[in-house]
Amino acid sequence: MEKAILGLDIGGTGIKGGVLVKGHLEDIRSIPTPAKESKEFILETIALFIESYLGYDIAGIGIGIPGLVDVEKGEVLGLANIPAFQHVELAKFLQERFAKPIFINNDANCFAIGVHKFGVGKPFKNIVGITLGTGVGAGIVINSHLYSGVYSAAGEWCSAPYLEHNFEHYCSGKFFHYYYDSKPKQLAKRAKAGDPEALKAFEEYGAHLGELIKHILFGLAPEAIVLGGSIRKTYPLFEASLKKSLSTFAYPTVLEHVQILLSELDETAIHGAVALVDVEPEIINT
Which PANTHER family does the UniProt entry name for this protein (predicted)? Predict the structure, then answer.
């Protein structure tokens, strides 16, 4: 039996899993998250989901969650949209149940280390991964190591003040909802058909995202910034305005050495979760 790493993505609506065997992700499964149930019920649901993968020789389990985590203790401090899952010692519970090493982190941090180990970020030592969807998240990799900060809160530029609100308001799906009463996918379809209003929406969006990236460059100056999340698929519609915004960055030499890349991973959350697990290299590599 081949050794494998199990990765879980626990969200407010679903729990998704998959195993990495010799560098290949396989056996992707998902179940609904019992978000309104008790902490005990949710923990048992997660355990039973993990049990369904015990046909594999699991060397370790990585878990990404949309909330703050005490990475050292493996304690979930809060989980978005799941009221009962606050201050939960998830790692301790799972280690006692399965006697496997458990690694837990914020999902945006998982995205960053996932694209670094398995995606377009692999050639670089220093990257920032930005997820663009209903919200905005970011993770930081420095010298090929994930930097999580205190309680996995590093990279939370989404909450930094910007214009009348914060960066998330202008760089996520919220921007299209509040200012154009639409969703990115719908506006993208209109923009591709030449609709002036839709084209304007993405032009403005790219300018806002450029401002966010400039803030990141001032603080970290990474070699690459990798965009993920559903909105990345509309990149051709805002690429020009994004680059125009970046062109005003105060240090042109730094800008010349930063690559803006798009994540190509289909199962980014699972790749990120398995990337957390510290095991023998032959399990991760092909």
Answer: BIFUNCTIONAL UDP-N-ACETYLGLUCOSAMINE 2-EPIMERASE_N-ACETYLMANNOSAMINE KINASE, ROK (REPRESSOR, ORF, KINASE) FAMILY
